[in-house]
Amino acid sequence: MVTDAILRALANFLSWVVGLFPTITLPEWVAIVTGFISGIVTQALQLGNWIPWPMVGLAFVFIWGAFIVALAVRIARIVASFFTAGGGSAA
Amino acid sequence: MSTIPRPLRFRRISVLGTLSVLVSVVLSVLTFFVPSANAAGVVPLLACVGSSICSPEGPAIMAELAAQGGTAGSTLSAAEAASFQGIVNGYGATATTSGSAIAASAAAGGSTSFGPILTGAGTALLSGGVSAWAAHVGSSDALGTLPTPAPGVTYGFKYNDTTSYGSAPSGTPTSVTLGGSGNASSVSFSATYSRTDQGDYGCKVEVLYRPSGQSMPSTFAALGSAETAGTAARYTVRSYGFGNGNHCTSSAATFSAAAAGRGSINSAWVIVGVGIQTWNFTSGIVAQYSSWWAMDAAAPSNPNRYVQQTITCTNSSGGTSTVTNSTGAIPWSPGDMVTVAGMMCPAGTRLTSWQADVKTSGAADTTLGSNTSVSHPSAGCDYVGGTLCTARVTHRVTSSTGTSWETCHVAGGACAQWWTDPARDTNYRCEYGAGSVWTVVGIGVCSIFRNSFPADPVTNPPTVDPAVPPTVGRNPGDCDMSWSDVLSGAIVFKAVSCALQWAFVPSPDTLTAVQTQVSTAWDGTAPAVVIGAVSDVYEPFRGLADASSSPDCNGPEVDWEWGYLDHAHPFATCDGLPKTMSDYFRPILGAVVLLGALGQAARTLAGTISLPTPKAVA
Predict the structure, then answer these.
(1) How far is the alpha carbon of B514 from chain A, nearest alpha carbon, in Å?
(2) CA proximity to B250, closest of B88, B401, B380, B404
(3) Is the overall model pTM greater than 0.90, yes or no?
(4) Which 15-34 residues of chain A touch chain B by CB within 8 A?
């Protein structure tokens, strides 16, 4: 009963918060664009006996993964360059 | 001497991989805009290899399959439209089978929600070939006498029944028996079909036949058009309502050419196949299709025969995707049965069409099929703010401020006996919609909820039979007490345990109510709509990366718009040279793409850690 009461109070609060958002209806062109994209992807998917789509996906993962790693290394280098670690001229 | 990899080598490989991806994308777009590709003469090169349209009967097959599509827009009277929650579909115009079966179904009270579906005010989506009604609107539990079959008229049967009886069906058909050797003036088949899972199910039997001694015709009229004696052979599909309404518990039906009004053409008919189809309604939505087929009694077994099902699913934005399921090669012997698994649309999408094709590569009966248009009793509502419309039951609440309707899908037990309530039509109503938009529909649509609201254990405690002794709990948390608990002292532990459970363990009803409340408030809001739209765009891409899915060997279907070459599969790889080519091409392309990607990744990383270039090494 205690948990029930808490859950109901939370639900009322969440419903109130969510109710603050306006209700909208998407314009028709969104459905057209979505249907267009879905149509192309569906056609592409059905070419799966010729094109190894999972491999293509894996290739994108490799390329973008390398890019992200490279970006991280460069950022790390830049940050590390701010720290001299006691170095500098001994003169 | 340097052992450092040469970036230039990586570059060549990565360029090759990138080109492969580009070619793939171009091919995809090409098939999407196939009319223009066709005009350019690109696609015909592959059109007839391994495709069903290569058979001499191919154009006719394609034309007939196209003709079986649903017909939307038939005008209904207001009474007909109001009765559409209870419709049995079948066509073939025979009172021998369909009339009695459906009348018996109506008398037994099958509440059905399948067949021709109301698509809007006064309009319906009909199954392929249905051109007239054997209508008995207003006679709630009887069809009466079916009209005399008329040439050129294919009837859809319906009745106005909103009551459900009996138990839910269970199991699968046990047998389908084809008559004679396949050349027979009549064929009998029987099946014990029922299911244990709840929900509304529709059943029908389809018979595929053609006159004996005739090959597939090169031309014939579309389904439902007039057949006259002495005309050329026909290959067609007839469907019959089957079983006791949605419960499908009937076990036998008989088909005969004579009963179907075709005996005057040729007394011998080749029964090519008999199929039993069922479809399942979940929350008022057609959610699943299943079928069982016994095929080709006249033809020898063929190791290349298989069944392919295709369903089309539509999302909230109107975008469609198809899901295909093939059985793989099944060397059926005549009369054997094959079970095709039911198919479901992804969550949030609705099933809008279903088709099952029997394909036999390399034989005369290459592609045969059953083609059914399906929809759901949407009452004009498919989605509200990206949320799939469903059915719900509400009950009348009368207070000093007036009358209101509250959902039954929460705890409280107010609707426990709603289906059998004598004043059901006054106290309850069925609504269809989502979020804050709900439309009142026929009460029969909500028959699936007839046992969904058990009595609340607090406000409506179940009656206890005093003759049955209470059981002793086996777990420490059980709250059943016995004298042994008192004597052993376990009663203290049990009392505390039960009190804690009562206080802190939320009831499933509360969890459901909370979830419903929040999701109802969320539906239709701006973020929900936007997220739904983004999800709709993202959803198709998930299939591309799914390595576990096996693509359909037919490849994409393209519309040539040449009339007789509609629905072609120019990239089919089911057998022959295309299969051999794709078996080699696909892994090679995969390796090239992967190597290219690895090369590109290596270049990126090498540049990052400042590996010397070939020029610097030199």
Answers:
(1) 6
(2) B88
(3) no
(4) 15, 18-19, 21-26, 30-34
